[in-house]
Amino acid sequence: MIKHIVMWDVQGDTPAQKQANRQLIQSQFEALRGHIPGLLHVEVGIDHSHVDYACDVVLYTEFDSQESLDAYASHPAHLRVKQTLGAVRIARHQVDFVSTSVA
User: Fold this and answer.
1) What backbone torsions phi and psi does residue 34 show, to the nearest 5 degrees?
2) What are the φ and ψ backbone dihedral angles of 100, each rounded to 5 degrees?
3) pLDDT tens per residue across span 42-78
4) Given this model, what pLDDT does residue 102 score?
5) Closest of 18, 85, 99 to residue 55, by C-alpha
6) In 1-103, where do the E strands start and end?
7) Please, are residues 62 and 40 in contact by the beta-carbon 8 Å criterion?
8) Does pTM surpass 0.85?
9) Residue 101: pLDDT band by 50, 70, 90 thresholds?
10) How far is it, in rounded angstroms, from Cα 10 to Cα 59?
């Protein structure tokens, strides 16, 4: 299994704008459920710690293989999400790793 984790900081001149952008990211990625072959799990979290070094949003996904993650990167549904969200993010961090843990 491949775990793909992405974190973003979002734009917003006011707390309400930042929250709207956080929720946009959440809804866009949650809408991918069932549309990407090999995507086993999608979870989107919005930070509630409000510490100065925290990212605003985290995407946690699990894929059945590296090939599925690679295909996700160029899947039309994912590309539409990336295009929609391109203007709302100001920073992005990513980690992909092979998981050997058994649930």
Assistant:
1) 80, 0
2) -110, 5
3) 999 999 998 999 999 999 999 999 999 999 999 999 9
4) 65
5) 18
6) 2-10, 39-46, 57-63, 89-98
7) yes
8) yes
9) confident
10) 13
pLDDT of residue 52: 92
Q: Go through the domains of the chain in sequence order and give each one's CATH number.
A: 2-98 (3.30.70.100)
Token duo for residue 10: 């979002």
Structure tokens given for 12: 């917003």
Which string of b and e fits 26-63 if b means at least 16 CB within 10 Å?
A: bebbeebeeebebbeebebeeeeeeeeeebbbbbebbb
How many CB atoms within 10 Å of residue 13? Answer: 7
What is the amino acid identity at position 99? S
